[in-house]
Every structure is written in structure tokens, then in C-alpha cells.
Amino acid sequence: MKKKLLQYASFIRANISDYSANDDRELRYWQDRLFCNFLIYCLPISLVALLPGVFMALKDGFVLIAVVDTICFGLIILITFAPKIKVRYRKIGVITIFYVLAIFLINTLGYLGPGVFYLFFITMLSALIFSIRYAYFSILSNAALLGAFAFIIGFKLFNSALITEYSAGKWIAFSVNLLFASTVIVLLIDKIFQSLQSTIVDKTHLQQRYLQIFNKSPLSMWLFDTDTFKFLDVNEAATEHYGYTREEFLAMTIMDIRQTEAVRQTEELVRANKLSGKYYGGVSQHLKKNGDMIYVNVESNLLSLEGRQVRLVQATDITTQLEHQLELYDANLKVKESESNLRALFDNAIDGFVLLDKQYRVKLFNPKASESMKFNRDQSSFKVGCSIFDYVETSRMSYFKKIIAQVYSGETVDYDRMFRTNSKVQWIRYTINPVWEEQRIVGACITGRDVTARKLYLRSIEDQNKTFREISWMQSHLVRAPLARIMGLLPMLPNATDDKERAEIIQFLNLSANELDDIIRQITDKSTGIIAKYGEPNGGG
Predict the structure, then answer these.
(1) Which tens digits make up the pLDDT trace of 324-342?
(2) Which of 33, 148, 177, 240 has the highest CB neighbour number within 10 Å of its CB?
(3) Check: CATH 3.40.50.2000 for 220-317?
């Protein structure tokens, strides 16, 4: 049975597919989609009401009511299944059918019959599937229609059942209540749709902001699926640096830019990082389209995107930097031959350098060292002959000695360190290399570079992604509950047995609408907060 219902719903959606051409960032798209769902549920639910209604009408001698109900049901079937009818014309057809049915039932059964409830239902449906002005037009049409019936009653026109049961005054008193309830509900729906449209606009701005940050970043960045390893998106810097077009990237996996012998290791690393969910940083070898091999510093974080676990990657080409370090290593081997050349190299380098001898004493340092290298928050200036341990704070001494031991055993060590001074955060990337002379390690070279801007840049992306996930969660979870209640209560109004029950339903509708309004306000506040923090998207570089 469930499979048949799914096939039925799929058939109707395929038959009414022209709404999908609209932009899902517009309210009209969701109104058309809501109308499509209305048609899906309308037929089976109408059939449940039609069969006993027609049976009772025939049993009690109301043959004309049974005939009209059956004709209207048939027209609804025609509108639902007829091909090549635009959504707009289907909407107009449904509203027209319900108006005809409402007028007939009111004339036949009076105010307390189902015809009045159909008028209320028409107004609600118009507010949900059309622009809100059509809902107000529906209220005016209902007022004119009810006024016409009052005129018929007052002047005893035609042979209407209303004349014997109602006076014009009593009819008007009943009608005013219907118009009041319709107006209140339409106003609430209007308020909800305005808030939804505002939320959609804010979300679009945030997405544009994210895309701008991603696409215009001067560093190569991409998203890839941690299950299939396929590229999901790449920025302009990546296409320019690696030589592939965006379309070529999206047809590739991250293994296509690695050497064959590194594929297995990369697969294991991606799966391990997916399980841990932690930030990853490391150096890899990548291949460009022209076959050139480059060294890149890879930094990535795990994200959840549309139900998939993906990695946002930033790759910085450090080939030139490594070549620069190699040149520095060669220069260190010639320290005895050209002390003055080494001093010139140190003094003009963009990074800070401190050269140590085999006893860990400062042998040489450049002017940048004091600016970009700190081992202690209250560190004094470097002095030749002082031990490097004199500059390291006590709490980090054990860790630093372990690193130095690794370097003097022949390893190269990289690590980042954060300092906070006068409410400012500074990140420094340290690289410590052994210094060789005649195949013996005679000291170490410490390189320091300020990487604060890059660190803060990645954190700003993480902050915005966190807010995107929160907004997405609220939209997919919190908004659904009150909206589902509203959609469940609306069909109940036409079937209310008395004014008290109808008032209770309207009260619950008000509560659900207010709850939905509060949730949307929270989403709007979050959107406004991140826009205020990072500014509106713009075309600036």
C-alpha cells in the first residue's frame, strides 16, 4: 500500500513539474510545491469524505447535492491528472470549483452547512498558494457573496432555502464572524510568509558571502567528499595554480593530483581524519596538469554538507619556500667561507632566523628575529652567546628540549605557536633545521614566520560554517513542527461542528503561528548577527 501511495505521489509530481523551474530561493517556488502536495493529499482525503456524503445525500433525498459533489470531485481529478496545464491555471481551477461548491451548498443547506466552511477554506488556501493579495481579494469576494445572500434573504428573491431559516440581520451577524476569522488568519499567514522571505534572503546573502570568500581567496581551496574522494567545488586560485579547469576538477578525485605511490597513504589518512573529525595540517606532494610536482602545506577541516561528510582544504604551495630553505642549508655549509654573505642573507630575509651552535647557544640572528620569533611572552632581545633555553618559558622547557633533541639528531621540525599580547593574537610558524658541516651536525637554524592572517582567515570560515549548520538545523527541524501543526489544523476548520470547536482550532492556529514566528525570528537574529560581524557580500577584492 505504501509503495502504491509513493508511486501515486511521484506520478502527480511528475505531471505538475513546471514549478521546479523556479528558483527555490523564492517564496513562489515553495507555494507551488505546497499546492502540488495539496493535490496529492486532496484526492484520497476527498474520496473518504465523498462516499459517505453522497450515500447519505441520496438516502435523505438530496439527489442534487450528491450530483454536484460528484461533479466537483471529478473536476478535481481532471485538474490533478490533466497534462500540460500550468500550475497557475490548476490553482485557479481548484479555487473556482470550491467557490461553485460553496455557493451551491450555502444556498441549499444554509450558513451552518459545509458551504460556509468551504468559503473559509478557499481564503486559507489562497493565502498559502497565491500571492497574499489574492487572499485579501478572496475575503472581499466572500464578503460580496455573503452580502448577496443577505440581499436574497432580505428581499426574498429566488426559491432559496435560506429565506425560510434566516433573516437578513441574522445572516449578516453570522457572516461577519466568518470574515473576521478569515482576516485574522490571512494576516498571520502574511506575517509568517514575510518572515520566511526575509530568512530566505538572509540565507542567500550568507551563501553569497561564503562563496565570495571561497572563490576569491588567494590560496588554493577545494571541497571533496570523504567517501568517494571526488572534488565537489574548487576556487579560482586552485584552477589557476594547478592548470585544470573547474569542470576538469569536478570530474576528478583528490587522488588524480597525487603520485601513484602516495594514493594508498592518502586514502588511509582521509579515513582516519574522517573518524577523528579534527583539524588536519601537513605537507604533501601534488601534481599539476603539466606534470610538475609541487610541495604544498595542506590544512583542512571536516564539514557536514547536505548529509555528506566533506573536507574543506586549503593548499599553500611551499615549493619555493622549501627551495629557499635548501638554499639556506647550502649557505650554512659555507658559513666558515663567507660569514659576511651569511649576514647579508640573514639581514635581508623576510623571516626571522636564529642560528645555534652545537651547545645550543645563539650564534647569529637577523633583525626580523625579534619581531617574528618569541619563545616567551616577556622575552628580551636575542644576544649572541646566550643559550636558547634562556628565552624559553619554564612551562614549555621540556617540550622545547625534546624538539631540539630531534633536530640535533638530524630531523626537521615544524610547529605553530600562539601568543596573546595587549588583547592581540599572534601566530608564529617555527621551522627548526639541523646545520651540517662535513657530514656532522654542528648546530641548528630556527626560522620564524608570522602566520596570524592565515590562521584568522581559516577561523572566520569555520565560524561562518558553524552558523550555517545551526541555521540549517533550525530550518529543517524547528520550523517543521509548528508549520506541520498549522497544515494539520487548517483542514479541520471546515469540519468543525460548532463555533466553540472552530474557536479552539483558530486559537491553536494562532499559537502555532506565533511559535513559528518566534523560531523564524531566532533564525533571522542569527543571520543578522553573522552579517553584522562579517558584513554584506560585495564585489571588492
Answers:
(1) 877 877 777 775 565 665 5
(2) 33
(3) no
